[in-house]
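Quick one, probably user error.
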């Protein structure tokens, strides 16, 4: 018979209470408690008002308790994740275009993301690992935009003084940063990528047709 670790209900109850009081975070248990022990841990988590998910199977099982809903799958907790993936080699230009495209897709999908319920697919950080909602909020608050297209124009351009005088020092610095960014290698790669999109040619034809009329 397989031997399982015994669940220390007193210690786990204290850990879960501290987790609940912290207001954000999670506890990962990698001990081999077995099916019965996993149900015990789940009951303790529920009693503390926390969310619980069991990832993996057998000796690779990871029990996660969190203050926020958990996704059904966590690749970083799957010991078999990536074993069947093939490595793809890209040159610098292809890698830059792919990175730009992924940023665009990620930016477009961010507004429709939902984190309600335990079936939430989760969001990932730059390393590809799952980030709980509270950690994502901290990361997004400290994030620097990849391009000026991600910054509302109202936050970028300062209004000219009412008296028609010279722009403020902050406005001048902002415009200088815009000019430097517009001529940076990253901006040139972004421009090259956009020019290859079908919509770019359609836009030019539309503008030309409007000008001719």
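Nope, works fine. Designed sequence:
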């Amino acid at each position: 018979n397989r031997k399982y670790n015994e669940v220390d209900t007193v210690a786990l109850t204290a850990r879960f209470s501290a987790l609940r009081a912290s207001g954000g975070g999670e506890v990962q248990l990698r001990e081999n408690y077995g099916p019965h022990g996993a149900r015990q841990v789940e009951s303790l988590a529920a009693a503390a008002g926390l969310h619980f998910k069991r990832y993996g199977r057998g000796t690779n099982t990871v029990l996660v308790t969190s203050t926020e809903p958990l996704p059904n799958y966590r690749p970083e907790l799957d010991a078999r994740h990536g074993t069947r993936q093939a490595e793809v080699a890209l040159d610098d230009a292809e890698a830059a275009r792919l990175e730009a495209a992924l940023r665009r897709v990620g930016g477009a999908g961010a507004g429709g993301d939902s984190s309600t319920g335990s079936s939430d697919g989760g969001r990932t950080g730059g390393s590809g690992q799952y980030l709980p909602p509270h950690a994502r909020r901290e990361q997004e608050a400290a994030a620097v935009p990849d391009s000026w297209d991600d910054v509302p124009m109202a936050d970028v351009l300062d209004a000219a003084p009412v008296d028609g005088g010279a722009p403020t020092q902050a406005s001048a610095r902002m415009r200088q940063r815009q000019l430097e960014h517009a001529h940076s290698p990253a901006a040139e790669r972004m421009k090259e990528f956009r020019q290859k999109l079908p919509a770019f040619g359609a836009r030019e034809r539309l503008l030309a047709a409007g000008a001719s009329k």
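The helical segments are 9-22, 34-47, 92-110, 133-141, 153-156, 169-182, 185-195, 198-212.
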